[in-house]
Task: structure prediction
Amino acid sequence: MTDPLYSRLGGYDGIAMFATNVVGLARKDDLLGRFWTNRGEDRNARELQLLIDFFVKETGGQMYYRGRDMVLSHQGMGITEDDWKRFIEIAVSVAGDMGVGPDEGGEVMAFFDGLKSDIVSG
Result:
């Protein structure tokens, strides 16, 4: 039996590092940075923790996700296809830098692909 994706990605610490690095790069990105403009650090920190909790739960870790579903969480944000593509580029880059293998990377991409229709609206 194969270990859950959660374990193969480094458990909580690996997933937290991945999410923190992706969000950090996205916040500084010319295209995606607008989603964090004029928001307090407390709100940003809370949303990062919710993202980590969501990733941990969805990859097979023991975490309770207390956030909203993806449709409601991203409603009204105007996330476009170009935004999505840039986010994926950042995520792939971070995963590569962290040494995520091709099997795990494929599973992560399939996971992201399953979320796209709930997140992209424009």
